[in-house]
Amino acid sequence: MGELRRGWCPQMYLFRSEPMQLVQLIIPIEAAHVTISYLGEVGLLQFKDVFHTMFLMYQLFQLNAEKSPFQRTYATQIKKCAEMTRKLRFFKEQMLKAGFCPKKSIAGFDNNLDDLEVKLGEIEAELVGINANGEKLQRAYNELVEYKLVLVKAGEIFHTALDSATEQQREYESSHIREESLDTPLLLDQEMSSDSSKPVNLGFITGLVPRAKAIAFERIIFRATRGNVYIRQAAVEEPVTDPVSGEKIEKNVFVVFYSGERAKKKILKICEAFGANRYPFSEDLRKQAQMITEVSGRLSELETTIDVGQMQRASLLQTIADHFEQWDLLARKEKSIYHTLNMLSLDVTKKCLVGEGWSPVFATKQIQDALQRAAFDSNSQIGAIFQVLQTKELPPTYFQTNKFTSPFQEIVDAYGVAKYQEANPTVYTIITFPFLFAVMFGDWGHGICLLLATLFLIARERKYSSQKLGDIMEMMFGGRYCILMMAIFSIYTGLIYNEFFSVPFELFGPSAYACRDLSCRDATTVGLIKVRPAYPFGVDPAWHGSRSELPFLNSLKMKMSILIGVAQMNLGIILSYCNAKFFGNTLNIWFQFVPQIIFLNSLFGYLSILILMKWCTGSQADLYHIMIYMFLSPTDDLGENQLFVGQKTVQIVLLLLALVAVPWMLLPKPFLLKKQHQDRHRGHSYAPLQSTEDTFQLESNHDPHGHEEFEFGEVFVHQLIHTIEFVLGSVSNTASYLRLWALSLAHSELSSVFYDKLLLLAWGYNNIIILIVGIIIFICATVGVLLVMETLSAFLHALRLHWVEFQNKFYEGDGYKFSPFSFALLDDVDE
């Protein structure tokens, strides 16, 4: 690790990951809990699972000796913590249902896990009992409410039926005392005598049925009993709380009259199938009144009892809410502590715990101080032993970031975590990412809109950071400083393009062009002459709206895209040299960096120089013709396309260099790797090879006796693929940067269309209503298309340019993150 620091590139903040060290801790078992707790407060030590390492070693020697999670030392304590976490989740659900929010209590609390376990158990038992009693009382209350409705509605049905029967009886008696006429049926007396001699006993069932099922309920009963029933229903005006489901349902009170036990059994089964609640009912009016009085009295008593229970439950939940944050934090801390302790192993004497882990070199003093404080506070006779181990294992990658650099680091990590002390693209991404975004989004009006939205998020940073936001809002808030940089650069490029919602302004002085005479006052395509020096900054406003605006801006933005792309790709190749120099890999310097920088600049670096020379000299040379015939006819005279003396000779030399660079990348490196491998095994070279992407073949395959295998064919094929990828990628990647031109043009044209076809068109009608509608549509189109969709599109394209065109020149991204044991990270864990 000390040799790695002697590289050419100096250490700088965020450019290289923090130097890491593998440390071993030997902790007395009586001080283990306190020690791990203090290390969690430091938060700069990533523990390794010793049991997992032992398992891999035992697998290597074909032994079976791994402890399952339930057989480890502190499995019982973890079960306790998991049970407490379950109880706390139950408390939280109950609090949220009742409308209580956990509060951050300032009062002190005894951090005793056993006391907390007992207390949580008692509170859970009490809360479960209160909930069970409350549910029973509420169900009884709902049943009594339904019963009272049945008594009232069924009583009305019976009263109506009784009045109707009395009226019919009176009509029958009045018709019977009349004299018999010739029209009277002969069998009437026989029928009446037979009915009176055989009285029919009718039974009835009362209850409530959901109104949505009432019609089907009635039809099924009618068909099941072959019509030998009489059903009456009365609708309940207000929804009724169902005693079983607890939901408010619209119901009907029903009364079913039947004859016979078979019909009764069928009706009871149908009631159960339809979820109809049955209640007893008496025909006696006195008993009905008595039962209504009794039910009303019981309802009043139950209301009082339920209110008292609710008050008791609310008081208990308020007590829980006051201490919930402390309890939850303690439970999560203890669970994480015991999880970490389970990653340690007992020594032979079973008096100490032995653990290993990664830590930054700068954290050594903090860790040692924590170990000393733990030994003192736990009254341990001996202190913990801290020692640094030597290892060839690849350490984790740790970058110290803040709220400004964090979103840019996340953008890079989404592609792949940097290998240990590999050059970090984030240093350059902080500038290049928002700049490439702004090249495609260049409009200082739209940039101001983005800036205002970002400043709003930054102004409410303290409030939003303590709240749980939605997925999209949380992503925007997390990248607020990235969006801030994007907005600032968009304003900058918008000033260069001289576009404010597609409208040009003379911000830095008057235009360099003016009308030749009065006839061209309203014209922007003819009659313009240059009367002043060039516009001092950005595009002259006279170009906008002219006939040559599109060809001029196309040429400008296309050539600018090529210059930016070649510059960024060269930066990537230079960073590959930094990596090779830092890791001491001379093969990568001479047979990767040198041919790559020659090949890229012999073709596209030369094109960039031609673009700059054409801009500076004002030449009319055709760059397409120059680049095409540089390959097809390199010895032909350039004629009017010649930009400088000796250009033909320079092009021939550059073409030959590009051709030589291809076998330079392909052939020497595999043979030199093979020679290094042979020399090392003959004892001619004792210097170990570095673990890089090019020597991975030397370290990937080992036999049980430790002899490394070298497959020359695999190494050669890998180098061939790498060479072809770079040669073809140089062309495709340069062309890929033309997306900067394409998206910038699309953004500008869309903005111009919205301005001309919505705002100016509505203004031309001289109607206030049409103008207001036009302004509203213009705002919606600008926000929806340009500020949302175009922002996302430019963001994704800038992301692709960094991941593919820039980072593939030097960035491996095959490392793994440093994940320390830290109490500060407990809030990020989704329990």
From TrEMBL:
GO molecular function, one term: ATPase binding
Residue ranges of the TM segments: 435-458, 479-497, 560-578, 590-613, 649-667, 768-789
Example of a GO cellular component annotation carried by this entry: vacuolar proton-transporting V-type ATPase, V0 domain
Membrane-topology descriptor: Multi-pass membrane protein
Name of the protein in its database record: V-type proton ATPase subunit a
Lineage top rank: taxon: Eukaryota
Compartments where located: Membrane
Task of the protein: Essential component of the vacuolar proton pump (V-ATPase), a multimeric enzyme that catalyzes the translocation of protons across the membranes. Required for assembly and activity of the V-ATPase.
Coiled-coil spans in chain: 106-133
InterPro entries, sorted: V-ATPase_116kDa_su, V-type_ATPase_116kDa_su_euka
Keyword set, alphabetical order: Coiled coil, Hydrogen ion transport, Ion transport, Membrane, Transmembrane, Transmembrane helix, Transport
Lineage of producing organism: Eukaryota, Viridiplantae, Streptophyta, Embryophyta, Tracheophyta
Gene Ontology biological process terms, A to Z: vacuolar acidification
Protein family (similarity comment): Belongs to the V-ATPase 116 kDa subunit family.
Pfam families: V_ATPase_I
